[in-house]
Amino acid sequence: MTADQQKKAAALAALDYVESGMKVGLGTGSTARHFITALAAKVKSGLDVMAVPTSRATRDLAHSLGIPLTDLDKHPFLDLTVDGADEFDGDFHLMKGGGGALLLEKIVASSSRRMIVIADESKKVDALGRFPLPVEVVSFGVSATAWKIERVLKICGLDGKLTLRRRDNKPFITDTGNAIIDVAIGRIPEPERLSNLLNIVPGVVDNGLFIGICGIVLMGSKDGVKTFKKS
Ligand code: 5RP
Predict the structure, then answer these.
(1) The pLDDT of residue 75
(2) Angle 142-155/191-198 helices, nearest 10 degrees?
(3) d(Cα 95, Cα 222) in Å, to the nearest integer?
């Protein structure tokens, strides 16, 4: 099974958790895309759901496939969010934001009774941090904010290399108009502490560590889809 086949298998398994009448958060990325496509087929055959997208790309895809959309102002409490991840560990901590949608993904997932992560087996790690941590920052004063992020890393006893994310030779801008600093750290021993300290830096909007939000991971693997449930 290729990584993409594993992603698709996990996405299809997530459909079992969707019931008619639910309000569903839709994640962003290639794995979430498999879920959105499969969900759209169910909607065509009569499943009654309304969805809240976590990015423009997801909104456009869901709309083009005929999934009824809503937003958190009309429906602040969702039943379920299904999203991918860049990494997950044994404590259901996640690293997200590789696609740049971490802020809306965190708002939507944390507004949901249940968040299910769908992933291929390469995303399972012993400790988060192999993937650079995306930190969404206000564009104003990026260098000053970066300096403060470095101070936070020092306080946590970590050493990280900061890179302003770029796309098409320009700074990458998120759907909400912010920039992203990717922080290559390596193993993060205390993700919750790091996340809390980063989020009190003026200029930091949020970071890609999702702590205490995800309760179920469906992981595609060579031996089929494995389900990890938080007890
Ligand atoms: C986007 C994300 C994605 O969920 C994450 O990057 C995983 O992407 P993919 O499913 O393409 O591997 O956090 O901001």
Answers:
(1) 98
(2) 150
(3) 23
